[in-house]
Amino acid sequence: MKKWHRAAVAAAAVTTLTVTLAQSSPAFGSSHDREPSYTFAVLGDIPYGPAQISAFPKVIAQINADPAVQWVDHLGDIKDGSSVCSDAYFQTIRSQFDQFKDPLVYTVGDNEWTDCHRTNNGGYNPLERLAAIRQLFFPQPGHTLGRHSAPVISQAGQGIPEDVRWERADVSFAALHIVGSNNSLAPWTGNTAPTPEQAAEVLARTSAVISEIHDTFATARQHHDKAVTLLTQADMFDPTVTDPTFASYYGFQPIVQAIARESAAFGGPVYLFNGDSHVYNSDNPLAAGSKWLSFYGVSQPVQNLARVTVDGSTGVSNYLRVTVNSHAPQVLSWTRVPFTS
């Protein structure tokens, strides 16, 4: 049975988390297994609305039936931005997530907590909703969801169990809690600025994300990995926004600068998968000539950073099948797989 890299097990032990390797899925291998290739699925911003909620079990069954897929990443936004953030709804999605047969890494989105202050979302305190999400979807920190759970390195010791990282063959991965609404700095209903509690949460989570980025690249360098892959909800480089304002994006600046700094110092390709903007896109957001360089205060182009936005929202009709080939120069390749009717 293949296992995640021993670093995940060691880190789990340090944080007193119990990692039962016998429960690990064969999907997750050591960075020293030198597998020639493997495949995982990525989707996000789904299910949105009653029709997709009803159809989501079929989506899961289709991914389960895909013989190539060995684990799944959900990039967050498990509901649309205009529906109620109820415990009952969260439990429905958790029950559906439990039907994935492979390990499932869930990256938290803004629709399930950050935006729950909205009246049409139920007028919740977003921090209370975040606590509910963590309790329900991360009951065993250091383990993925899915029928065949696998160990991961978790930031549960910092109170952020959803930030996780792992290795598979020659690639280091990290799932990072970065959300839309200016990384949760957009004022809540009835306010004109972030509350002190809101700002404190963002500061702590951003610090943890930057630490996770650093640790992921440090591991990749130490183990001579061929690539680094980051997964998050927020689209920090939305191509549909022609004239972005710093007031709407400043919450992302330290994170983008950390990604740029670490990517530039890494010898191989770096991949960033995100949801949020709902329309498939593949680009190099910090390449020479990009408007985002000066916008975020990045002094030098980062040519080896590639970004992929997955389809989402009410029009989503596919999931992304990503293949890793450590012998290929670009390491990762992907294709959109249409949902079956």
Features:
five-stranded mixed β-sheet, Purple Acid Phosphatase, chain A, domain 2, 341 residues, 20% strand, seven-stranded mixed β-sheet, disordered N terminus, alpha/beta, globular
Record the SSE blueprint.
Blueprint: H1 6-14, E1 37-43, H2 49-65, E2 69-74, H3 87-97, E3 104-106, H4 126-137, E4 153-155, E5 160-168, E6 171-175, H5 180-184, H6 196-222, E7 227-232, H7 246-249, H8 253-264, E8 270-274, E9 281-283, H9 291-296, E10 305-309, E11 318-325, E12 332-338
Parallel strand pairs: 1-2, 2-3, 6-7, 7-8, 8-10
Antiparallel strand pairs: 1-11, 4-5, 5-6, 9-10, 11-12
Helix pairs in contact: 3-4, 6-8
Give the percentage of residues in beta strands: 15-25%
Quaternary organisation: single chain
CATH architecture descriptor text: 4-Layer Sandwich
**SSE pattern, N- to C-terminal:** HEHEHEHEEEHHEHHEEHEEE
Which runs of at least 5 residues are low in confidence (pLDDT < 50)? 1-27
- Basic shape: globular
Average pLDDT rating: 91
Q: For the record, what is the CATH homologous superfamily label?
A: Metallo-dependent phosphatases
Number of helices: 9
